[in-house]
Amino acid sequence: MYAYRSISPLTNVPERILIVDDEDLIVLAMRKYFQGLGYEVDSAFELEEAQALLANYDYDLVIADLRLTGIGGVEGLQIVADVHQKCAHTRVILLSAFGTPEIERESYNRGADAFLHKPKAMMEIAKIARTLLEA
Amino acid sequence: MAEHASRPALVHRAAFDAVVAVCPDPMWVVDAGGFLIAFNDAFEHWWREVSGTVPILGNAIEGRPPRVTELQRRALDGRSAMTDVRLIVSGIERTYAIHAQPAAEAGGAAFAARVSTREAPYVSETSIELALMHLFASDEPLAELAGRALEFLCATDGWDAGILWQLAGSSLRATAAWFGSDDTRDRLAEPMTDLRFPVGHGVPGRAWATREVVWISDILDETTLARGELAAAAGLHSVVAAPLIDSDRVSGVIEFFTRKVRPIDDRAKKTLVHTGKALARLLDRRRLLEQIERKGAEWMLTFDSIALPIMLVTPDGRFARLNSAARALTGASYGELVGRPVIDFGPGEPWKTLHDIVTAVADSGIGCTAQIATESSSWDVTASLLPARGGDEERVIIAMHETTEMIRLQESVRRGEQLAALGELVAGVAHEIRNPLFGLGASVELLEQQFAGNVTVSEMTEPMRTWLKRLQMLADNLLEYGKTWTVDLTPGNLRDVLKLALQTCGPRAHLAAVNIDRDFDASDVTLLMDGLRLVLVFENLIDNALQHSPRGGAVRIEASRDDSSIEIAVIDHGPGFVEADLPRIFEPFFTRRRGGTGLGLSIVQRIIDEHGGTVTAMNGDSGGAIVRVRLPIYQPAD
To answer: Into how many domains does chain B fold?
Structure first.
């Protein structure tokens, strides 16, 4: 379970993650899960909140849900764009329960590092996160 | 002359014999004992007609009428004699004057017969008409009948050839002929076929124009005759033509020829006028009859070629007539059906309702429509009343329009619409379920993470994971089933698809200790496909087969193809389908397997539908399940 290191081997400081999802219980579970793995975790429930955090802090990884508002929302794509504009080294994982092949392609075009379909086991997400951070 | 002078008696004898031979009157000589010692050709022919026997030299003439016997006795006694004998020759009764002359020294006597001119040789007009009617009562083709009528008329009135000219368009054309000798036939028959006589032209055309008998005693006197030379060459001299008049209309001409120069004979002319009328009536009636028969045949053919079952039923519910489609419906032959009650085929449908309809229509006199459905077919039925007419009883006419296919299509469209609506709903729900599932899964994993190493917790989270997995599978299947995808088929190889499916199923087969027999080389064909979805089809089918196979068993995948399609069969040796379930196994959520979503085969069917194929399920002869998928082979336009 604790096979992954959460302390950057270069800086020796904990790696910082931002989790964005409009479902507070999902945010809570993920937050605790990644904290449990040793990451420093921030979280946001909506686009503006996430954008504010991204403006002020430097994250190693952002895990964002594609849809943050009602039906048809694709706010996650905006987050991907913002992250890339601000900080090229930050990795982004998009999660979605409604993903279509078109949106998935669009996400990669905008610079997402992974596009995962919900439901996905936390263990697998953590594994992918680790791979991205070490790449 | 010197030569001849040495044998004058012989020369005279030869000349005499020649004269006797060509004499048209029958002549014969008997010796003192009454035995034939000489006769001419005319006698041979005549006697054959009179007695039905062939005269033979040295024999007494047999079967002779009593009066001939009496005559011969008197002649052999040395007296010349003459008697009138009524004889039937060529079917016609005639009176013959027979002369007998005793021979001087040797005994014996010579005889000559001649048609008596004292009594009218004419056959009565009524007898001719009766005889013609008798002829025409036969079923023989018209051309043959006409030929026989001409032969009869020639024989009756002593003509050597007869031709029937009938109106075709604006001219007369020969439609039948009779020739008394092969020679006449050879000379006249062929030129005749191409001859056409417009009104007023030639002897037939003149008879047509004047509406009267045209009688020419000697063709050689006539310079206007087109066939004059021809007829003369055939040795014909007299010609007569009589119009065929029926209801004041000339429908043709009969024309007769004879070798003799025959003077105009008013009595014969009068008979010809009458014969012309009788023949015209008979020919016309015969033509009408043939037309009716042809119309009848045409009608039967039309009736039978209609694909709708049509039946004529008597008011008391018995079959009177059925077209072939209706006969096919009954499964019986025409002979077995006519007169048989409709209800005999019951009590099932459509016979019961048909019987009721017939009764209702016959009772009310008003037509009606109805719908009849059996398990396999359905019809729109129209019934109407054909009122009694002439000598015919009234009939109920039933036309059945099969609507089975139409109803099936309607149902299929309705089912398609329902499925599309259902699919949308299902896919929507499936999507919405994914978020809660993700949240639940995350929470369970968090629990396991926080209480890592705690056996009690892991004992509780283990079943949670199992249920979660099941829910996730259901959501995935629902999504797959409900997906409204855009059909985007591209050419791909079916064998590659099967190999991909087996890559996924291989490990599972290994786990289940089931061997997979691969016999699908024939699947090396190109189809229009959505490759990933087709892989899913075969994964589903092979998975199903694996799940139902006993350990150590085998699942067989075989391919067979024809020109236009390929069939893949997935065969297992498990318990097979419950026979009663077979009609329902492709319905969504229909499953008897615990833990199954009941969507696997529904998804298979949807995807195969999208590929223009069919999927069928059955049990093998020796148990086990067989699912056959048939797909069209891609055939590029060029």
So the answer is: 5
| Inter-chain residue contact B439 with A95, CB threshold 8 Å | no
- Short-list B340, B369, B339, B349, CA closest to B357: B369
**Last residue within a domain, chosen from B401, B430, B454:** B401
Relative to beta strand A40-44, strand B109-115 is unpaired
Tell me, yes or no, whether B10 lies in a domain: no
> Which of B438, B441, B450 has the CB atom closest to A36's CB atom?
B450
Which residues between 101 and 130 in chain A have a beta carbon less than 8 angstroms from any beta carbon of chain B? 117-123
By CA distance, what is B483's nearest residue in A?
A: A100
The whole-angstrom separation of Cα A133 and Cα B431 is 30
| CATH number belonging to domain A16-134 | 3.40.50.2300
* Residue pLDDT, tens place only, B25-60: 888 888 888 888 888 888 888 888 777 788 888 888
Tell me, what's the ipTM?
0.85
Classify B517 as helix, strand or coil.
Answer: strand
Note whether residue B3 is domain-resident: no
pTM (two decimals): 0.44
Judge contact between B487 and B530, C-beta under 8 A.
Answer: yes
First vs last C-alpha separation in chain B = 100
Q: Which of A113, A52, A34 is nearest to A80 (CA)?
A: A113
Q: Could you tell me which chain A residue has the CA closest to the CA of B428?
A: A98
Summarize pLDDT for B414-453 with one digit per residue, the tens. Answer: 777 777 777 778 777 888 888 899 999 999 999 999 998 8
Q: Which domain holds residue B263?
A: 125-291
**Interfacial A residues in 16-75 facing B (CB < 8 Å):** 23, 25-26, 29-30, 32-33, 36-37
